[in-house]
Specification:
There is one protein chain. The protein is an alpha+beta fold and 506 residues long. Among the domains are: 166 residues, no CATH class; 120 residues, no CATH class; 58 residues, Arc Repressor Mutant, subunit A (Orthogonal Bundle), CATH 1.10.10. Helix content is 34%, strand content 20%. The chain contains 15 helices and 19 strands. Strands 1, 2, 3, 7, 8, 11, 12, 13, 14 and 15 form a 10-stranded mixed β-sheet that branches. A 3-stranded antiparallel β-sheet has the order 6-5-16, with no helix packed on it. It has a two-stranded antiparallel sheet with strand order 4-17. The chain binds manganese (II) ion (MN). Manganese (II) ion binds next to loops.
């Protein structure tokens, strides 16, 4: 359990997250303009009259976007509302030409409600994190303040692109129901899960560096064991796991100090200072009332039918949690391996491609990936599109690794030779592992006659050690195996060598 030591005792932290993910769609949530706003696109070229709120222009809901929201809802075990609506959230800012954001109002059903995902808790046990809602809303434009010393510019390409805002729940009526985030690490694990679910579903890149995933972080503290929640503060628009963790810890300590000195926490929005990792008060938190939410009169209620939900349910791919279970149950992998191999959807796809449905190959592939391949990210293409030599780098493909594992399993080569082949590939040797083995004569010697001959030589050359072994120093077995392996040029099958030496030495 994550706790912070204060003057008066130990404190725990409660974290709520509002995560925005940018949803992939050809066009925007309420207009036909392209939703591709990436930095290479010229500013203000993907903007429709609707996006910039020209008088008389009406929003038209993009059905594809609605489907993505439903997909996400199903991916987090949530209820899909059959009837929800869009509201206007009023505020003034240059990046918001309408003067309001079209969103789904707090306190009303969103398109997605009451979901949960499972993360690994700090105690190493699975923990359910409740998700109150996920709602659809518009993204704002991008203000540019760094192009002119005295002027600011606005790029409206991003205006109206769909965001899905995912809000964790705090079961205030059941504070003992420990189904919320209680540490910086859990916050990171939760966000990574959300990211992987979104990616597995193909609904968002959910990339923090690119800004397609942003989190508002709510932090409160309470004495360890307390059965109530204290007031919280919010740190907005965080785009790095590292900063989020730093901010949570700093903000928690700030609040503890206030409470321990007899003060109270006022709800407010905090600014995170990247330079020194501190948080400072930015403004007192605006109330929902200040936004004057009201149903958008230009949009009909969002009606979703059971048929629609079922149709989408049928297209759902396997999600990371299910992949993990499959690796453990069908492939017999340890939990650690399963967790490493499902860190991203690309990794699990690569792994599955190498395993090719052959359970007996799984552990071998897992070992190579986790202990060797992950250490050489430049030597494989996680999207599995490249192969051969690319930019002077030998790209190791899933089928290369599968072949290597199979060759060892079939005793064509031993472990040492497999490692040598692997190193040759890292060094830029082209061709499949089998071709490399052929080229360098790396065939394992399994012929017992040939191995016996080598053993006889080694025994004849080491009479002293033979004497010691026979008088009970069985630890010398390794000495003989090593020498036989060496004499065979590393080609002998170690299992056969072991067996034969034991037999010969009695
Ligand atoms: Mn929002």
């Amino acid at each position: 359990m994550f706790t912070i030591k204060g003057k008066t005792g130990d404190w725990e932290v409660v974290v709520g997250l509002e995560t925005h993910i940018e949803v992939l769609s050809k066009s925007k949530l309420f207009s036909g303009a392209s939703a591709d706003y990436n930095p290479t696109v010229a500013p203000n070229t993907q903007v429709s009259m609707v996006d910039v709120a020209m008088p008389g222009m009406l929003p038209v809901l993009n059905e594809y976007c609605v489907e993505q929201a439903i997909k996400f809802g199903l991916g987090i075990n949530a209820e899909i509302a059959h009837n929800s609506r869009f509201a206007r959230k009023q505020y003034f800012y240059p990046d918001l030409p309408q003067g309001y954001q079209i969103t789904q109002a707090t306190g009303e059903p969103a398109v997605v409600n009451n979901g949960w995902i499972e993360i690994m808790s700090d105690d190493g046990k699975p923990k359910k994190i409740l998700i109150e809602r996920a709602h659809m809303e518009q993204d704002a434009a991008k203000n540019k303040h760094d192009m002119h010393p005295a002027k600011s510019f606005v790029d409206f390409n991003r205006t109206g692109v769909m965001l899905l805002e995912i809000v964790t729940a705090l079961d205030t009526k059941n504070p003992e129901n420990n189904s919320y985030i209680t540490s910086p690490d859990e916050a990171e694990r939760y966000l990574r899960q959300i990211r992987e679910i979104a990616r597995a579903l193909g609904i968002s890149k959910a990339n923090m560096e690119e800004g397609s995933m942003r989190a508002d972080v709510n932090v409160s503290v309470r004495p360890v064991g307390a059965k109530y929640f204290n007031e919280r503060c919010e740190i907005k628009n965080m785009v790095s796991f590292k900063f989020i963790k730093t901010a949570i810890e700093y903000e928690a300590k700030r609040q503890i100090e206030i409470l321990e000195n007899g003060g109270q926490i006022d709800r407010c929005t905090m600014r995170f200072n990247q330079g020194d990792g501190t948080t400072t008060v930015q403004r007192s938190k605006e109330d929902a009332l200040d936004y004057r939410y009201f149903p958008d009169p230009d949009l009909l209620p969002l009606i979703i039918t059971d048929e629609q939900i079922e149709r989408i349910r049928k297209t759902m791919p396997e999600l990371p949690a299910a992949t993990r279970t499959r690796y453990i149950e069908k492939f017999g992998l340890p939990e650690y391996d399963a967790a490493r191999l499902t860190e991203t959807v690309d990794i699990s796809h690569w792994f599955d491609a190498a395993v090719g449905g052959k359970a007996e190959r799984a552990k071998g592939v897992a070992n190579w990936m986790i202990s060797e391949l992950f250490a050489h990210p430049e030597n494989y293409d996680i999207t599995n599109e490249k192969s051969g030599i690319v930019d002077g780098m030998r790209i190791i493909t899933p089928s290369d690794l599968a072949e290597l594992v199979d060759m060892v399993a079939a005793s064509e080569i031993n472990g040492k030779q497999a490692k040598d082949i692997f190193i040759k590939m890292l060094d830029g040797e082209d061709g499949t592992p089998r071709a490399i083995a052929d080229k360098f004569g790396m065939k394992q010697i399994t012929d017992t006659g040939a191995i016996e001959q080598i053993i006889d030589e080694v025994i004849a050359n080491n009479p002293g050690q033979v004497e010691q072994y026979k008088s009970g120093k069985v630890g010398l077995l390794g000495f003989f195996v090593g020498n036989v392996m060496k004499a065979s040029g590393g080609k002998a099958n170690p299992a056969i060598v072991n067996e034969l030496i034991k037999k010969k030495l009695g």
